[in-house]
Design a protein that fits this description.
Blueprint lengths: L2 H24 L5 E16 L6 E16 L4 E14 L2 E8 L5 E3 L3 E17 L2 H13 L1 E16 L2 E2 L8 E9 L3 H7 L7 E2 L9
Antiparallel strand pairs: 1-2, 1-10, 2-6, 3-4, 3-5, 3-7, 7-8, 7-9
């Protein structure tokens, strides 16, 4: 390799190294999301008169969701937060929060959304294996429910704000919940629930 080739090779390596260092220094950290508390006070499945595979689920699920911004220079405007609940990979509940009033989360800040309630009834298509799984969990007294967060947000860096965008759905899977009444949950302080850290957070990375 000649002198010119050596210079080109050195320049290329220098630029790559500079790029990696810049990414490490300036790329913000992903925010953290955690289901810190949860209470399941109703979760009843019954057959409908229309179709043997269709079941009516009556539910009431209450959550506390913690948002943590670990960054020193980056803030977030959450224009919309949707909380989705799935059972057996089937959606049974969705609630939209702050649809008209965005909230801002500043630097090194923690925000807790208290008492997010998903309540109602939903007709669900269940196969025999789904029925068997529900009966098994009913016998054990513990249900496995997946929660997902669908966000619409903007990022603020100094005085610069991005346009709003929708990152991929964030997964807070495998919440282990036993049926309890509201008073029991309040007296126990939710101590029986183990917080679940959410995954698949891709706001700055893809």
């Amino acid at each position: 390799m000649g002198e010119w080739g050596s210079r080109v090779s050195f320049l290329f390596c220098f630029l790559v190294t500079l790029f990696v260092i810049s990414c490490i220094i300036f790329l913000p950290q992903e925010p953290k999301f955690t289901i810190t508390d949860a209470s399941l006070t109703q979760f009843n499945l019954s057959a409908t008169n229309f179709n043997s595979n269709n079941k009516l689920l009556i539910y009431k699920l209450s959550l506390n969701v913690t948002f943590r911004n670990p960054n020193n220079k980056v803030g977030f405007y959450f224009d919309r937060v949707r909380v989705i609940a799935n059972y057996r990979k089937k959606r049974f509940a969705l609630v939209t929060l702050n649809n008209t009033t965005p909230f801002y989360q500043g630097r090194k800040n923690t925000t807790v959304l208290h008492n997010v309630v998903l309540e109602g009834q939903q007709t669900m298509s269940f196969k025999e294996k789904d029925d068997e799984h529900y009966e098994l969990e009913t016998s054990s007294g513990v249900y496995s429910i997946d929660v997902k967060l669908a966000l619409k947000l903007r990022v603020r860096y100094g005085k610069i704000k991005t346009k709003y965008f929708k990152p991929p759905t964030i997964n807070c899977n495998n919440l282990k919940l036993s049926l309890s009444n509201h008073n029991d949950h309040r007296e126990n302080g939710g101590l029986n629930f183990k917080p679940v850290k959410c995954k698949n957070i891709h706001i700055f990375s893809f």
